[in-house]
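Format notes (please read before filing issues)

Several people have asked whether sequences and structure tokens are stored in separate files. They are not. Every record keeps both together, in the order shown below: the sequence lines, then the token lines. Line labels are part of the format and must not be stripped during preprocessing.
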Amino acid sequence: MEDVRHIDDRSGRALDLICDWDGRIDKDSAAAAIYNTVREEAVKELLKPVLGPLHAEAWKATGRGAPALVADLRAHLFDLAVKDDRRGLPASKSWPEFVGEMLGRALDILERRLGPDMATWKWGDIHQLKPVHPLSAVLPENAAVLDPRARPRSGDGDAVHATGYLPVSAFDVNDLRRPVYV
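Then the structure lines:
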């Protein structure tokens, strides 16, 4: 991350947070929110040329197809950058330049969702467990009573406290069935 090109003070502050971060995907971590949002924006950008006109549909999809492709790239993104494998990058971009651009996008998204003060950002404010009772689909007028309130969650699909999400759900937790082996 030290090589990532930042274009303004805001990006510099975000990079400082990430470089000082312990790597824990904690619900109270601003760095975890920045990291996951940068990674998600990078995956979206890298899949555009691969999926072409189906790109927008991939982010709405559920099931095994597109979400599996997204998850696979998400899992390998760091390794690609470390190995400086530029095959999927936009022409003439280096990984530091590309990640710097994705950082800018991610910070814009987080400012819209969480406000301008980076010190108050929390991963749990955008990564939440939102249980839906099976009867909510049949009785939507009772959903407010049937569905428990959303709760901030630590972890992500790659952490020991694995709480996966589909691209369509914008970080909402939807995969609690995965066993965790330590």
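For reference, the curators noted about this record: Strands lie at 128-129, 151-152. Residues 114 and 121 are 6 Å apart (CA to CA).
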